[in-house]
Design goal:
Blueprint: H1 2-6, E1 30-37, E2 48-56, E3 66-71, H2 85-93, E4 96-100, H3 118-121, H4 126-142, H5 147-155, E5 158-164, H6 166-177, E6 184-188, H7 199-209, H8 215-232, H9 234-242, H10 251-267, H11 271-280, H12 284-296, H13 307-310, H14 321-330, H15 348-353, H16 360-369, H17 372-375, H18 380-383
Parallel strand pairs: 3-4, 3-5, 5-6
Antiparallel strand pairs: 1-2, 2-4
Bound molecules: 2-acetamido-2-deoxy-beta-D-glucopyranose (NAG) (2 copies).
Length: 384
């Protein structure tokens, strides 16, 4: 269970990492902008940037009430999903909920249209991401930004922080770094460890597929071999790739995409249907077509697998891949690798090329960011 849950934030993942924040978003809210400090590491730097936040005061009870700071991250923070945990807690606690967008996501782009250059992205790191909510809380006490917030200021209510997935880790780290700013934090699926060789992820997925019968993992291995074969054959290769519209991808990037398309079917609770459908199809070609339809139905998410796309620096509010991989490649990586000496759901060819510890993902991703590899350092010890 732990592996499956923690894997929600793994680095090549089109599955919504924001389990706590899935829509619909119909709760009444007020959306505001906060003047955030650009660089918390330099006290002399007074440069500021805009950070978006949403305030939900419908559950606020001034007698018993508290404040829940919802830490957004890894996505365009449109607010807090109606049925999500922060609201359930807010009802119990009579709390106001404030959702703060993470720098470099959605509308909180510190350098506007220039935010995604490599140089400017270097202002995205875990320390800045922890200092943002800390400074935000401290300023809320000082500034009367909002009616309800003025009330909070007068009453010095209990404050809590909450986050899920990568923001879950932020929530846990925040408690260590700023214990005086909250009375309690909730880290849902808090992925606090950097794991460069996370082979257990695929291993667990493979074990899960065998619950749908012995055949299912074998079909999946055959599908990977099928792709390897098509990519090796110079006559079929081009047409094969083009049938997926992923012309800009290298073979290995394509293999990652393919493996993750499988993995996501299992991870998102569709194992039974998926395995049964494979079972019902008469040939490997038809199975591959079925998988292709799934991959194509996922819109633009394939772009996270292609360096060509990740290099694009054009800021676009709904896109998270470039910023997220920047974070994965510099600090918060959980890199799925091919299990060594074990049965794998990923093409065996992928672990031949990765080098160190089979951390193929690392090589692939880091190449996309060039010099980032030099800066790769686990954050954990630094932070706690
Ligand atoms: C970073 O952003 C600033 C402010 O928008 C811009 O002037 C600068 O050119 C950007 N730097 C790079 C390397 O893109
Ligand atoms: C870069 O991204 C923008 C926004 O998503 C898109 O409009 C543009 O076509 C992309 N550029 C290239 C070269 O793919």
């Amino acid at each position: 269970m732990y592996l499956i849950l923690s894997a929600l934030t793994i680095c090549s993942n089109a599955i919504a990492p924001h389990v706590l924040t899935q829509g619909p978003f119909t709760q009444p809210k007020e959306t505001l902008q906060f003047k955030q400090l650009l660089d918390h590491s330099d006290p002399a730097n007074t440069q500021t940037c805009q950070q978006r936040y949403h305030v939900y005061s419908q559950y606020f009870n001034p007698i018993k009430g508290g404040v829940i700071l919802y830490i957004c991250g890894e996505w365009n923070c449109q607010g807090v999903g109606d049925n999500s945990l922060p609201f359930q807690l807010a009802k119990d606690l009579g709390a106001i909920v404030i959702a703060l967008e993470h720098r470099f996501y959605g509308q909180s782009q510190p350098f506007g249209a220039d935010s995604w250059s490599l140089k400017n992205l270097s202002y995205s790191n875990v320390h800045q991401a922890l200092d943002d909510p800390a400074y935000f809380i401290l300023q809320l006490k000082r500034l009367k930004l909002h009616k309800s917030i003025a009330l909070i200021h007068q009453m010095s209510l209990h404050r809590y922080a909450i986050g899920g997935s990568y923001p879950g880790a932020l929530s846990a780290w925040f408690r260590y770094k700023y214990p005086h700013l909250t009375v309690g934090n909730l880290a849902s699926i808090g992925v606090i460890n950097t794991i460069l060789d996370f082979w257990q992820f695929d291993d667990q997925i493979r074990k899960s597929t065998s619950k749908s019968g012995e055949q299912c993992p074998l079909y999946l291995q055959s599908l990977n071999s099928y792709v390897d074969k098509n990519l090796k054959n110079f006559n079929t290769k081009k047409a094969f790739k083009e049938s997926y519209r992923y012309k800009k991808m290298t073979d290995n990037q394509f293999k990652w995409l393919w493996a993750d398309t499988i993995v996501q079917m299992i991870q998102s609770g569709q194992r039974t249907k998926f395995c049964e459908t494979l079972e019902s199809l008469p040939s490997i070609e038809q199975m591959a077509e079925y998988l292709r339809d799934i991959a194509l139905s996922r819109g633009g998410s394939y772009k996270q697998y292609g360096a060509y796309y990740l290099r694009n620096e054009t800021v676009y509010q709904n896109t998270i891949f470039r910023q997220w991989y920047f974070q994965c490649c510099s600090e918060v990586a959980q890199l799925q690798t091919t299990p060594q000496n074990k049965e794998s759901l990923r093409s065996y060819e992928l672990h031949q090329i990765g080098g160190e510890n089979g951390a193929m993902m690392l090589t692939l991703r880091v190449k996309q960011f060039g010099q980032m590899r030099e800066q790769l350092k686990p954050i954990f010890e630094d932070c706690i």
